[in-house]
Amino acid sequence: MIVIVDYGLGNIGNVARAVERLGYDVAISHEASTINKAQAVILPGVGHFKDAMLAIHRLKLHEILRNVKDKPIVGICLGMQLMYEHSDEGNVDGLGLVPGNITLINTIFPVPHLGWNNLISNNDILNKDVYFVHSYQAPMTQHVVAYASYGTNIPAIIQYNNCIGIQFHPEKSGDYGLKILQQALQGGFINDSNMASN
């Protein structure tokens, strides 16, 4: 069973349908008992970082998610950003599951970063177009598995311990997006420490 965390902000319906297409049973919940039974946990997210963290604290999900150690936690879009220590969007702390801070995309191109863009990775399998919608980004560190170029390098897939972040929307990225989501739910990607310097 895959549990999609419900805290009131997220593209939950589309994510649930994508996971079901992969053949998994899906539960949508914010209850610790359900999350603890999951094979993997998805933290979705659409909207403002501060609003999301307020909802997460109100439901005490920060305590529950910080105690998930033995299974993948897959953050999608804003959900990926929430796993970091802090965000400039609202100047608020995140879950602290992944080291680093979220900042506004610094680029000569229009923000938000909206639409299809190519993934760049040392793994040729990941070098495909996927669908982005976001104005803030994670840092380029050794945890980056794939990134996109948009006048600056934007982490697109990260992995740190059992936390896997997907900045784009796999559920809107066709069959290829589903393949990436499948791999994330199965434990993730081989991290290449050279990505941050590319």
From TrEMBL:
The active site is at residues 77, 169, 171. The keyword Amino-acid biosynthesis applies. One of its GO terms (cellular component) is cytoplasm. Pathway: Amino-acid biosynthesis; L-histidine biosynthesis; L-histidine from 5-phospho-alpha-D-ribose 1-diphosphate: step 5/9. One of its GO terms (molecular function) is lyase activity. GO terms for biological process: L-histidine biosynthetic process. PROSITE patterns: GATASE_TYPE_1 (PS51273). It catalyses: 5-[(5-phospho-1-deoxy-D-ribulos-1-ylimino)methylamino]-1-(5-phospho-beta-D-ribosyl)imidazole-4-carboxamide + L-glutamine = D-erythro-1-(imidazol-4-yl)glycerol 3-phosphate + 5-amino-1-(5-phospho-beta-D-ribosyl)imidazole-4-carboxamide + L-glutamate + H(+); L-glutamine + H2O = L-glutamate + NH4(+). The keyword Nuclease does not apply. Its EC number is 4.3.2.10, 3.5.1.2. Keywords: Amino-acid biosynthesis, Cytoplasm, Glutamine amidotransferase, Histidine biosynthesis, Hydrolase, Lyase. It is found in: Cytoplasm. Pfam families: GATase (PF00117). Residues 3-174 form the Glutamine amidotransferase domain. Its main location: cytoplasm. PANTHER family: IMIDAZOLE GLYCEROL PHOSPHATE SYNTHASE SUBUNIT HISH. Heterodimer of HisH and HisF. IGPS catalyzes the conversion of PRFAR and glutamine to IGP, AICAR and glutamate. The HisH subunit catalyzes the hydrolysis of glutamine to glutamate and ammonia as part of the synthesis of IGP and AICAR. The resulting ammonia molecule is channeled to the active site of HisF. This is Imidazole glycerol phosphate synthase subunit HisH. The gene is hisH.
